[in-house]
Amino acid sequence: MQQHPLYPRPPKPQLVVSAGMRPNCEVAVFINGPLALADGIPFFRSANGVILTPGNADGFLLPKYFKEALQLRPTRKPLSLSDNEGTECQSGPRHTSRGRTMIQQ
């Protein structure tokens, strides 16, 4: 399975391609930032404006922080998060690419 970096970005009225988000991105996941921050998940803004997170101690951003998910391609439509409620990620090896933490799916 291919690994992908996690690039949270500031909310905007329309979902547009932003720094760090590839134009061929298939899924966008919106994060409940206040909840994640309250639980101690750190976020950082890079020099080019991309918001990054290393996730929790195991390198994951758990589904409980997912606010909304959209399939962007081939057609834009909301994705259900109901299967993710209460789901815990299994601990596994952290993958890095060019110094970025990769989220294992």
Automatic annotation (TrEMBL):
Residues 81-94 have a biased composition (Polar residues). Transmembrane segments: none annotated. Belongs to the KptA/TPT1 family. The lineage of its organism: Eukaryota, Metazoa, Chordata, Craniata, Vertebrata. This is tRNA phosphotransferase 1. GO terms for molecular function: tRNA 2'-phosphotransferase activity. One of its GO terms (biological process) is tRNA splicing, via endonucleolytic cleavage and ligation. Gene3D superfamilies: 3.20.170.30. Residues 76-105 are annotated as: Disordered. Keywords: NAD, Transferase. SUPFAM superfamilies: ADP-ribosylation. InterPro entries: Ptrans_KptA/Tpt1 (IPR002745), RNA_2'-PTrans_C (IPR042081). Signal peptide: none annotated.
